[in-house]
């Protein structure tokens, strides 16, 4: 003999919803990976020589909880916890450059917390692609992250390459736990 248990909500001992059903068999679980965002640079951005510059990620592909600001280019999650934050940038300088190095950075609350540096002096005029990721703890109210890039060279033609697709230069993150 089989038994059927009918319920539209499963809760833990604290009364927190773990699993709900709409009565039609569609289940909703906890949104552990939220808030989440993914933004990209849709056009090339000029950089000043030797100046670390915030990358203007003004285009969102994903922003689950409206925590990414497309005018300040920063993510300020409203749920405390651990997040995986990532950024990628394609940097380039002109062909007459003799020495080029650069870096991409993740900043939390105005300070560098992750950096990838690279040197592409052997291929001046070519692009270099770098990416970094970092697990970051957020307080759920005022902590924020931003992405920066820098090129050091002997001329004034440094750029972060953007594209209307999301594959070139991007910035994102999502909650991985409390």
- The CATH topology turns out to be Jelly Rolls
CATH class: Mainly Beta
Q: SSE order, as H and E?
A: EEEEEEEEEEEEEEEE
Taking pLDDT < 50 over at least 5 consecutive residues as the criterion, the unreliable ranges are none
Largest sheet: 7 strands, antiparallel
Radius of gyration: 21 Å
What is the overall number of helices? 0
Name of the CATH architecture:
Sandwich
Q: How many strands appear in the DSSP assignment?
A: 16
The percent range for helix content is under 10%
Shape: elongated
Number of domains: 1
Strand content: over 45%
Keyword list:
16 strands, mainly beta, four-stranded antiparallel sheet, 178 residues, elongated, seven-stranded antiparallel sheet, single chain, Jelly Rolls
Structure overview:
The mean pLDDT is 86. This protein has one domain (35-177): Jelly Rolls (Sandwich), CATH 2.60.120.40. The protein has strands at residues 9-11, 17-21, 27-29, 36-40, 45-47, 53-54, 59-63, 68-69, 74-75, 81-92, 101-108, 111-119, 127-138, 145-152, 158-160, 170-177. The two termini are 42 Å apart. The chain is mainly β and 178 residues long. The strands form four sheets. Strands 4, 5, 7, 10, 13, 15 and 16 form a seven-stranded antiparallel beta sheet that branches. A four-stranded antiparallel beta sheet has the order 6-14-11-12, with no helix packed on it.
């Amino acid at each position: 003999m089989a038994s059927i248990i009918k319920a539209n909500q499963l809760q833990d001992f604290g009364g927190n919803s773990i699993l709900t059903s709409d009565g039609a068999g569609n289940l909703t679980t906890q949104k552990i990976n939220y808030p989440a965002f993914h933004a990209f640079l849709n056009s090339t951005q000029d950089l000043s020589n030797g100046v670390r510059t915030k990358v203007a990620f003004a285009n969102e592909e994903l922003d689950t909880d409206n925590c990414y600001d497309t005018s300040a280019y920063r993510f300020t999650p409203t749920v405390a916890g651990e997040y995986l934050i990532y950024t990628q940038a394609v940097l380039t300088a002109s062909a007459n450059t003799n020495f080029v190095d650069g870096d991409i950075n993740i900043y939390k609350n105005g300070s560098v917390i992750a950096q990838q540096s690279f040197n592409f002096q052997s291929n001046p005029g070519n692009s270099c692609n770098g990416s970094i990721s970092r697990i970051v703890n957020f307080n759920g109210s005022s902590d924020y992250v931003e992405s920066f890039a820098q090129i050091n060279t002997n001329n004034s033609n440094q750029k972060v390459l953007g594209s209307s697709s999301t594959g070139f230069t991007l910035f994102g993150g999502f909650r991985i736990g409390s």
